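Example: diguanylate cyclase.
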Amino acid sequence: MFKHLSFRARMACAFGLLTFLVLLVASVAWGSWTIHLLESQVRDELQARVHAASELIAEGLRDRSSEITDLSRMPDMLLNGAPEPDLQERLDAKRALKMEYAWLGVASTDGHVLAATRQMLVGKDVSQHDWFKFGKTSTWIGDVHEAVLLSRLMPRNQESEPLRFIDIAAPVRDTTGAIRGVLCAHVHWSWITRLAESILQADAESRQLRIYIMDRHGVTLYPFAETGATSLRLQANISNSVGELMWADGKRYVTGQAALRESENQHLGWRIVLRQPVDVAYAPLRAFVKEMAAITFIVALLAAWLAYWIASYLNTPIAILATAVDRLGGENAHVMIAAHLPPELQRLADAIQAASVNLTASRRDLLEANELLEQRVHERTRALALANEALTRQAMTDGLTRVANRRAFDQKLTEVHALSARTGVAYGLLVIDTDLFKRVNDQYGHQIGDSVLVAVAEQLVGSLRATDFVARYGGEEFVVLLYSVKTAEELLAVAEKLRCAIEQFTFDPVGRVTISLGGCLVQGASADLRQVIQLADGALYEAKRQGRNRCVIAASPTSW
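Written out as structure tokens, the predicted fold is:
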């Protein structure tokens, strides 16, 4: 299509395309760098936020753990296994100062609560609770759980969510270091989640930022709506990472995750995960790509328009010359160019006018030369066709016997077999072997042996119809294809005719030579070519086994 455009259009297209490609390459290079930078900013922001949330939670747990440890070390907290008189007030005061504490209590060494905030659970047996078991030895922080007994005594902020807590426990020792009890604090799980949510800005909802707390196996602990689900398969060997991950809902999210920093008393194995949908996170990138594409397209259009205007100015003298050249192709080849042209183009105009003078005579000479050339081409083509025909005959003819060779037989057998399949007319196949031919070669030499083969071929051809097909199959073997043979008896009669013709012929100087024949009658519609040849060969071997100089026609298989 481009070759049919005018010079002005070509120049405009070429210049516009060149400008577009240059801008495209520049835009891709600069855009790739910018996109990579923006993607890094998005990921760095998520990683910074999720790391900040992890640190906030780790520091908060460490501070609460330190507070409980310090409180458990207060002298005379338990006197002779009994709480001191103002212990109740101390626990209530601590809870009033730190609202993240849902419950503070002290249990005796046998597991009964001696004192607690607001006297909740006082007297209850907590010896089977993990915080009591582990808190007897050292400061211990337990994983999030529901406290059934405590939740019945405390109001809920949200009816749809059960109260969940984190236990922090420490041993209570006397001045001699002996265990006198266990101090435990139930910390509100909502305090942990508020710490995590605090790293989100006011636009978190519009940006679809969502924070998760997961255990070491990837099971969601927060938010409550997805508690217990495995939303994301975490990699245990990654403590801090950010990238695009596929979540359980089948969508891809830019996901930042950070492992909760562990301490001497805290081995929760939590992961703080912050995610944002890929299409939302990278929405500014798509807008940037669209803007770059629009700018590139507009600049390319402006470049094409400028190129078209310049080409229009430069094209005027070229158009005059083009018109003159077009006239050279007409019947009146005489051309006159009267316009004033630049020196370079004027020389071209003079050459065109000079060429027009000689064009008419040259055209006449060219027509005569074309006629002569066409005649020679016709003669050469005819000679080539005759040569090809001769080569084809030579390629399909046995060089010694001048009958068809193996290649011609294979081709003819395929044709006859296909014709029989279409028409339902049977055909006969005879495989012929010259008996004891090796003795002829050994006794008289190969030259006499060759003459015997030539004579055998001549006798076979002379004994058959013009429509039958004789070929040398290889060595001293020949094959015969007989068209329109109706019965095996008819095929056997032809075979006997050929055998008798060879047997009665005198081969100088050998004398008498005999042949063995094996054949089969073929119905092409239900027979396979390999089966046909194998059946005829089998009949030939049977004729030789019976003593040679005889004919055997194989019975057609029942499957035919």
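Residues 318 and 345 are 8 Å apart (CA to CA).
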